[in-house]
């Protein structure tokens, strides 16, 4: 899988005349940042809200705004040639109705009617328009034709009302697009094989595991631990590790993007919960162990990415420690915490495919080989935390991956989200290979 989530994907972005058109700027930017080739099509009404020049600057392509545009490569038929996906965001009630009727009276309706690729719409409108029987019927009709519909959300609307109808946030739409394209659609797209991408079970559902039963991680239950743990010394002090949680959170996000059912067990962090991920917050190592145990028997894959404290105080102090009472030296009695990843690896029943992380400063291969055997792991991912440009608190990372047979692969320095993309692709592939061998 590419280091960029959407590398070499051609996406047509249709923008219609809803106030949410301004959000399409951020969606366009995010798609391009992640490797997509984006071609923008706008209705005349949309150009009144955001100028075509804005999208031309973002996409580095001319923008199609009229069915009579004749610039090379942006005609209303040619713009969808070899496209992987056509995304309409926002999609107004008017545009949805025109699509149902098969109308071709503007650049968006004409180009989408002429497209042979999968189509995704993100409706945005007033609540009363959304719940009108005509709109509800139109959504059902579009769904029955195989068009994917990303549910709008509840919130403040441009008209001043508050309710259902606001276009889904850009991160959700982006994650949906990534999950959909994880089907690795062949070019050119064959409309006779549309059953490879089944329609949602509900008219405006967004649950990826329902929408994408054949995506790379769909049907899999993946548990990820992330962040540090904290062990109290007294009410004001703790023993902890330097982990920011960024790598574990990125892995959870990518697993969900690939269609998996993801549970993230997190120590204390300031990070937002990834989209479509269930999060369990814990503080101590024993709390994290209990949370992990609660998921065993259900998990297909377990990824221990958390930096768990190795020791805790035998008896934490109930009142704040006063340095004046202890002099120059302080002795703390510590007891070893149970090794969570080793516990999972040695399960006799309900053992998932078990992946560990090792933060090392030297002797990488020797330490990896020792830990993978001692902890009974299927894979171990080694990070060099001595390199200050990667690892703890950094946005970048690098990794070497080992199996019981030796080194599997190495990934050089890259962003943690890109590395998470590559690692989740590898982990799920290794899991499937292991299970196909057992079968």
Strand order across the biggest sheet?
A: 12-11-8-13-16-17-18-19
Give the termini distance in whole angstroms: 26 Å
Q: What are the low-pLDDT stretches, counting only 5+ consecutive residues below 50? A: 184-214
Mean pLDDT: 83
Shape: elongated
Number of strand elements: 19
Tally of separate helices: 14
Radius of gyration in whole Å, from Cα? 25 Å
Helix fraction, binned, reads 25-40%
Biggest pleated-sheet summary: 8 strands, mixed
Strand content: 15-25%
The helix/strand class is: alpha/beta
Q: Can you describe this structure in just a few lines?
A:
The chain has helices spanning 23-33, 44-47, 52-59, 93-101, 107-113, 127-131, 133-144, 170-181, 208-211, 246-257, 285-295, 340-345, 364-374, 416-438; strands spanning 10-15, 37-42, 85-91, 119-123, 148-149, 153-156, 162-166, 221-226, 231-234, 237-239, 261-266, 277-281, 301-304, 311-313, 334-336, 353-360, 379-384, 396-403, 406-415.
Write a structural description.
The chain is an alpha/beta fold and 439 residues long. 31% of the residues lie in helices and 23% in strands. The protein contains 14 helices and 19 strands. It has helices at residues 23-33, 44-47, 52-59, 93-101, 107-113, 127-131, 133-144, 170-181, 208-211, 246-257, 285-295, 340-345, 364-374, 416-438, and strands spanning 10-15, 37-42, 85-91, 119-123, 148-149, 153-156, 162-166, 221-226, 231-234, 237-239, 261-266, 277-281, 301-304, 311-313, 334-336, 353-360, 379-384, 396-403, 406-415. The strands form five sheets. The chain has an eight-stranded mixed beta sheet with strand order 12-11-8-13-16-17-18-19, sandwiched between helices. It has a five-stranded parallel beta sheet with strand order 2-1-3-4-5, sandwiched between helices. A hairpin with a 5-residue loop joins strand 6 and strand 7. Helix 4 packs across helix 7 (133-144). The protein is elongated and about 80 Å long. The chain starts with 9 loop residues before the first strand and ends with a helix.
